[in-house]
Amino acid sequence: MQTKGERMKILLYGDVYWDASGYAKILSDLIPEFLKAGHEVRQVGLNYNGVSKREELIQVYPTRVWGVKSHWAPEALEVAIKDFEPEIVFTIGDYFALPEIVQVLSAPTKVSFKWIHYGVMDGEPFNKDLISATSWCNYHLYQADFTKRTVENAIPGIRGKTIYPAVNKEVFHPLEEKEKEELRKNLRVDETFNVIFVGRNQYRKNLPALFTAIKKVHKIIPNIRLIHHSIPTVDPSGAPNSYDLETIIREMDIEKLVSYIPVTEGGILSFEVVNQLYNLGDLFVLPTMGEGFGLPLTEAMACGLPTIGTDFSAVTEVIGDRGLLAKVAEYVYVEGNLRHAVVDTDDLAQCIYRLSGDQDLRKTCIEKGFKFTDTLTPDKVAKRILNVFEEVVKKDYQPKAVE
Questions:
Q1: DSSP structure string for 187-234
Q2: Domains along the chain with CATH numbers
Q3: Residue 303: left if φ>0, alpha if ψ -120 to 50, beta else—which one?
Q4: Rounded-to-5 percentages of helix, strand, coil across the chain
Q5: What is the mean pLDDT of residues 237-246?
Q6: What is the pTM of this model?
Q7: Fewer beta carbons under 10 A from the terminal one: N or C of the chain?
Q8: Which pLDDT tens digit goes with each residue over 24-63?
Q9: 135-169: b or e for each residue (b if 16 or more CB lie within 10 Å)?
């Protein structure tokens, strides 16, 4: 039996760690810390075809190869387990992926490793069709209490805890004031009040609601500008999952109020550029219909931006009293009977207006944001997760399905 502090063999499963997704970013923060702690780490990299895009930190098993029939690549996962013989298999992603890989990871075929899932729910309730697969994990880590409540309401007695994802403050941080002023001047946004959005262009992010709020606020803040970076996306089946933002902006007649920061060659904006983008801003807004966490919120806080988000899902606890929460206008049900929230654009506009002029409120939000993100550095988050790994192995936790 392994004891605390011993070297572990950890197999990660999720979006390949240099990708542009939030899951990939979480892994890219954790991997160096796992390695520093002396553990052996490999990954089954979703979307990876075997051609490295950068110097390898760890060995990555490709999934976009001959013989793999789906995006979730259970065949590649099985090969990796047999080859690596890990003590921990750490999967990170949406719960709807679990039925695709559960047969590889569940008893009685698995005998030597513990399966820990780091999951998110961006809406509620938990889909009953996922209960069986979810019950085969030895332990659950939740990226927010919202997910914890949603899963535990569906599977009473399931074992797990919440650990918020890390934010790397060496990457996301305020620039020196002189550098910030020069950057804003060079991009001709030095005389505007800049609202920032960073995130995928997908329906759930609800960018048109932010466009609507900006148009409303423009009547009382004439120099307002929205600066956004939003990568178009598709769902795992390859179907489009993005708005035609250019058309929407044109139809709303707000072209002069919106600036778009395009991706660089290769489809990924460097962290350095994203940090500069946050530093162009006066506040950050996430008009989402639902989030499992909302990494851009803590990135923006680490850069010294007050934040605004929809008062629903994990956003409610991540922002808390560190920013403003815009009211929900109505709830809608999407695929899988998942309930999402539609933000009230009048209240969103009012929140933007409040944080544009109330300097005491801005200062309080910035200070609380800094304090919160100080608790989420990669070394601290990795230590919390590694402690769970050691506990699960030492106490030989069994899946809820077995119990």
A1: TT-TTSEEEEEES-B-GGG-HHHHHHHHHHHTTT-TTEEEEEE--B-B
A2: 9-166+378-394 (3.40.50.11930), 177-375 (3.40.50.2000)
A3: alpha
A4: 40, 20, 40
A5: 82
A6: 0.94
A7: N
A8: 999 999 999 999 999 999 999 998 998 876 668 999 999 9
A9: bbbbbbbbbbebbbebbbebbeebbbebbbbbbbb
